[in-house]
Amino acid sequence: xxxxxIFNENVKPADRQKNKFTFLSxxxxxxxxxxxxxxxxxxxxxxxxxxxxxKWFDDRTEEENELSKRWIENKPSQVTFxxxxxxxxxxxxxxxxxxxxxxxxxxxxxxxxxxxLCKKPLIHFSxxxxxxxxxxxxxxxxxxxxxxxxxxxxxxxxTIVDSEKIRQETAENGFNFIQxxxxxxxxxxxWD
Length: 192
Prior knowledge:
Strand order of the largest sheet: 3-2-1-4-5
Structural class: alpha/beta
Largest sheet: 5 strands, parallel
Shape: globular
Radius of gyration: 16 Å
Strand content: 5-15%
Helix content: 40-55%
Distance between the termini: 14 Å
């Protein structure tokens, strides 16, 4: 469940200048989130865009610290680091950007649900083994990515940048999906 009083399509955008198509990548950087695949994909993209990457990374082990340092020092040219922020500010960034790059590890987390509630086109890979259901049966997932291969991620990013129609369809389908799986009334009913 997500707080729809914070995450919704009517949030005032963050006070930040945008000069080109802009993605937000708010997930923690780490192998568990697929940062390695996303960053490799960014080098394969053909379109012009910026990625606002929250400077937040796994640091539980020395190996994770070293990997994070390498990512920070060798970031793709499209990446601009931004600091971690409060939830309300995150919603304002969702409102500001043109699209969101979520995790591509196969799982869905909070930032993906929050982006969909803000009606943003989302680049996200969800493993087919993870299914969602309602009273009518299985709910089809609306995500463009059917694999988390860097070449597929790059194609999805370029498609979102290039096609307003695909952006709108992706945002609308994602919003409808999240209403089915994270609707607070439905979840409260399940808990009851």
